[in-house]
Design goal:
heterodimer, A: 373 residues, mainly alpha, globular, B: 6-stranded mixed β-sheet
C-alpha cells in the first residue's frame, strides 16, 4: 500500500499479508517489541508476567473494596438477592465506559491518546436518535452510531498520521468540534428515543445477566484476541513501543495509527448505543468526561501512557474498580466529591506503583543480562 | 424539518463549537420541542401597556449552551420581542464562559441599546458589567442569575430555586402523610452539586422536610443530563432497597432517572420532578410511571423579562400595579404540577 502523502522517508512498498509474514520480517518486527512475544499464557494474564502480577494486585484492590462494602453495609450484604443484583449493577455501570476503554487501550498502547471519546459517544448517540425521530428503526440507529463513530475515528487518525498533528491536539480539537456538532444536530435538545428495541437493550436480561454485560464481554474478548493473538495486536505494541523500529521492520505505521483511532471510534459507536439505551435518550452533553475515565482505567490497568505496553484485562479491571468505588460511595450515601478524591488518589497510587515496578523490572533485567553475559 | 428550522440550523452551526462547555453551568431541562409555544409568550393585546409606544431597542445576551432550558430562554425572548411592533431586538451570543460573555456584551454596550436583558453565566462574574452599563445610563434587566450588587441592575426576574425545594417537599410530605407513612425513606437526585442554584434547591427541600420531621436518606447528584441521571438513579436505587419518595431536581435528567427506575423494575415509591418539561407533564398526565408531580422553573421568565424591559424603556409601570414604574425584583413562584392540573400547564412545557 503506498503512502498517500508521499512523505520523504519511503516505507516498504507493500504491506505483506497479515497471516504469514516472511521470516525475516517477523524477526525484525519482534525485535521492535519492547517485550518478548507471549506464548501460551492464560487469558486473564494478558501478555506478560508483569501484567499478570498487576492484575492480581487489581483483583486484591477489588476484594478490599468489597470487604469495605460488607463492613459498612452489613444489612444490604446480608441479602443474597441484593448482593447478586448489586454485582450485576456494578458490571452494568462498567459496561459503557468499559467498551470505550478497550478502544482507548489500543490507542494508548499504540503510542497515542484519544481525548475525543466522550464527544464521539455523544455525537454518535445524538445522530442515531435524531435519525430515530425520522423512523429509520433500531437497525438504522445502530448502523448510524457505528458509522459515525468509525468516521470520526478515521478523521482523528488521518489528522494524526497524515496531517502530522500531535494526537493530544488533534483529539482535543475533535472533542470540541464533535460536541459542537452534536449540539447542532440535536438543536440543543435532549433527543428522546422512542424506539422500544433500542430502549430495551438496557433492560434485557439473558439467562439472568444483563445484555449490556454480554456486550462488554464480547468487546473485551474481541479486544483481547485482537491484541494478543493477531498481527494487528503485535504491530500495535511495536508501533507504540518504538515507531521508528516498527517502520524499519516494515510496518506501515501511519496506516496502522489510522486504524487504531478508527477502532477507538467504533468502540465509541457501540458505547453510544448502550448509553442511549440506558438513558432512553441522547444529548450533546452526554458521556461527559468519559475520556478521563477511560484513560484513568487504562493507566490503572497497567497501560503505559507512553505506549508499547498494556493489557485489555487490566483495563477492564480498572473500569470495574471505578464502578465498584462509585457503588460503594452510593450505598453509603457519601458525596461524589469525596468519591472523586478517592478516584484521583487511586490513579496516582497506580501510576506510582507502575513506575516502581517498571524500574525494578528493567533494573532486574539489566542486572541479569550483565551477570549472564 | 421545515425550511425555517433548516435555516436556523445553518445559523446555529456557526455557533455550534462555541456552545461547548457552557452546558455544565446550566440549570433547567429540555424536551424535543425547540420553538416556544404561543403560551410561553404574551400576545400584544389592544389597550393598556400593550399599545404601541415609544420605540425601544432591547439588547439581549444569554449563554449559547447545549441545554434545552437555555435554548427555550433565547427562543422565548426572541418570540416575545417579535410580538411587539415597537421593539427592536439585538441579540449577541454569550460564548462559552463569563469572559466571552463580557466581551460580547461590551460590543452590545457600544451600540447603545435602550435596555439590556441578560442571563449571565454567573451573576457574580458579570456584576461589574451590570455596574458599567447602569453607569452609562442603560438599564439592565437581569434574567435568573442575580447580581450581588443592587446598583448593577434596574430589575431582576428569576426563578425561585429555594421555593422549588419547598414545593417538592410540601407535595411529598402531603402524600406521605395521607398514606400514613411515619418514617419515610426519601431519596434526592440534584443536578450539578457545586452550583449555588442546586444548593438552594436542596436547602429548600431539606428545610421543609425537617419541619415535618423527615429527612433525605440518600442523595446522588447528576449533571442535568439523562445519562448522568440514569447513573445517579441506579446508585440511589441500589443504596435504598425500599424507597417512599424521590425528588429529582430536573426533568431533563429525569428522562434517565425514569429509565433507571423502569430498568430496575422498582415501583414502590413516587417521584417528583423539577422545571416542568413537556415530556414530564405528559408522563404525569398519563400516570403510568412513578412520576406523579413536577415543580416549575419556567423559561417563560425570558418572555416576561422582555416585556419588563420594554416597559422600562418606555418609562411605564405594570398596569395591574399601583406603582408608576416596573418593580426592582420579581421572583417567580414554583408551582406544583400534578395529574389534576397538568392539562392547564402543558402549554407552558418546553
Amino acid at each position: 500500500m503506498s503512502d498517500a502523502t508521499g512523505t520523504t522517508t519511503p516505507e516498504r512498498p507493500t504491506d505483506l499479508p497479515a497471516q504469514s509474514p516472511p521470516v525475516s520480517k517477523a524477526g525484525t518486527e519482534a525485535a521492535a517489541h519492547r517485550e518478548t512475544p507471549r506464548s501460551g499464557l492464560s487469558f486473564w494474564k494478558g501478555d506478560s508476567g508483569e501484567g499478570a502480577r498487576r492484575n492480581l494486585g487489581l483483583i486484591a484492590v477489588l476484594v478490599v473494596l468489597v470487604i469495605i462494602g460488607i463492613a459498612t453495609r452489613p444489612d444490604l450484604y446480608g441479602d443474597s438477592n441484593w448482593v447478586w443484583n448489586n454485582f450485576l449493577t456494578i458490571l452494568k455501570l462498567a459496561s459503557v465506559v468499559g467498551v470505550v476503554t478497550v478502544g482507548m487501550t489500543f490507542v494508548i498502547i499504540g503510542g497515542g491518546i484519544d481525548l475525543s471519546v466522550g464527544a464521539i459517544v455523544a455525537l454518535s448517540g445524538v445522530w442515531a436518535t435524531t435519525l430515530a425521530t425520522q423512523s429509520f428503526g433500531a437497525g438504522g440507529m445502530i448502523f448510524t452510531a457505528l458509522v459515525v463513530g468509525l468516521g470520526v475515528g478515521l478523521v482523528n487518525g488521518l489528522l494524526i498520521s497524515y496531517g502530522k498533528l500531535v494526537p493530544f491536539i488533534a483529539t482535543l480539537a475533535m472533542l470540541v468540534a464533535a460536541r459542537g456538532l452534536a449540539a447542532e444536530i440535536s438543536q440543543k435538545q435532549t433527543q428522546v428515543s422512542n424506539n422500544s428495541t433500542i430502549n430495551g437493550i438496557a433492560s434485557t436480561n439473558v439467562l439472568g445477566i444483563p445484555l449490556l454485560v454480554y456486550i462488554l464481554a464480547a468487546v473485551v474478548i474481541a479486544g483481547w484476541v485482537l491484541l494478543n493473538r493477531t498481527t494487528f495486536g503485535r504491530r500495535t505494541v511495536a508501533v507504540g513501543g518504538n515507531p521508528e523500529a516498527a517502520r524499519l521492520a516494515g510496518i506501515n505505521v501511519k496506516r496502522h495509527t489510522v486504524m487504531l483511532y478508527a477502532l477507538s471510534g467504533v468502540c465509541c459507536g457501540i458505547a453510544a448505543i448502550m448509553l442511549t439505551s440506558q438513558a432512553t435518550s441522547a444529548q450533546a452533553a452526554m458521556a461527559n468526561l468519559y475520556e478521563l475515565d477511560a484513560i484513568a482505567a487504562a493507566i490503572i490497568g497497567g497501560t503505559l501512557l507512553s505506549g508499547g505496553r498494556g493489557t485489555i484485562v487490566g483495563s477492564l479491571l480498572g473500569v470495574i474498580i471505578f464502578s465498584t468505588i462509585t457503588n460503594l460511595f452510593a450505598i453509603n450515601g457519601l458525596t461524589t466529591e469525596a468519591q472523586n478524591m478517592v478516584k484521583g488518589g487511586i490513579i496516582v497510587a497506580a501510576v506510582l506503583v507502575q513506575q516502581v515496578q517498571f524500574r525494578s523490572v528493567t533494573g532486574f533485567l539489566k542486572r541479569n543480562k550483565a551477570t549472564t553475559a | 424539518m421545515t425550511q425555517q428550522s433548516r435555516d436556523m440550523s445553518r445559523r446555529r452551526l456557526l455557533f455550534g463549537t462555541a456552545a461547548l462547555g457552557a452546558g455544565a453551568l446550566l440549570a433547567g431541562c429540555t424536551s424535543n420541542e425547540a420553538e416556544p409555544t404561543a403560551a410561553q409568550t404574551k400576545a400584544a393585546e389592544t389597550g393598556g401597556n400593550a399599545e404601541p409606544g415609544k420605540r425601544v431597542t432591547i439588547g439581549f445576551s444569554a449563554p449559547a449552551a447545549d441545554h434545552g432550558w437555555i435554548a427555550a430562554i433565547t427562543n422565548n425572548a426572541k418570540a416575545q420581542a417579535g410580538a411587539y411592533s415597537d421593539v427592536e431586538f439585538k441579540t449577541v451570543e454569550a460564548g462559552a464562559d463569563a469572559a466571552a460573555q463580557r466581551a460580547a456584551l461590551s460590543t452590545l454596550l457600544s451600540q447603545k441599546p435602550d435596555v439590556i436583558v441578560l442571563l449571565p453565566h454567573d451573576g457574580k462574574e458579570l456584576n461589574a458589567f451590570g455596574l458599567e452599563a447602569m453607569k452609562a445610563g442603560i438599564p439592565v434587566v437581569n434574567l435568573d442569575r442575580a447580581f450581588p450588587d443592587a446598583r448593577a441592575y434596574r430589575t431582576q426576574i428569576k426563578g425561585d430555586n429555594y421555593g422549588m425545594g419547598v414545593a417538592a417537599a410540601t407535595y411529598i410530605i402531603a402524600q406521605l402523610q395521607a398514606k400514613g407513612v411515619s418514617n419515610p425513606i426519601i431519596g434526592e437526585i440534584p443536578g450539578i452539586d457545586s452550583l449555588e442554584l442546586t444548593q438552594e434547591r436542596s436547602k429548600g427541600f431539606a428545610d421543609t422536610l425537617a419541619a415535618s420531621g423527615f429527612k433525605v436518606a440518600n442523595r446522588r447528584p447528576a449533571e442535568f443530563t439523562a445519562d448522568s441521571g440514569q447513573q445517579a438513579a441506579t446508585g440511589l436505587l441500589q443504596a435504598l432497597p425500599k424507597i417512599d419518595a424521590i425528588w429529582n431536581h430536573d426533568d431533563d435528567q429525569g428522562i434517565g432517572v425514569l429509565a433507571a427506575v423502569n430498568q430496575s423494575g422498582r415501583k414502590e415509591f413516587f417521584m417528583v420532578g423539577g422545571a416542568g418539561s413537556k415530556k414530564a407533564m405528559e408522563d404525569i398526565q398519563a400516570d403510568n410511571t412513578v412520576l406523579k408531580a413536577t415543580v416549575t422553573y419556567s423559561p417563560s421568565m425570558a418572555s416576561s423579562a422582555i416585556s419588563l424591559a420594554r416597559l422600562i424603556g418606555q418609562g411605564k409601570g405594570m398596569s395591574d400595579l399601583v406603582e408608576l414604574q416596573v418593580p426592582k425584583e420579581i421572583v417567580l413562584a414554583s408551582e406544583t404540577i400534578t395529574k389534576e392540573n397538568a392539562g392547564d400547564y402543558l402549554k407552558l412545557g418546553f
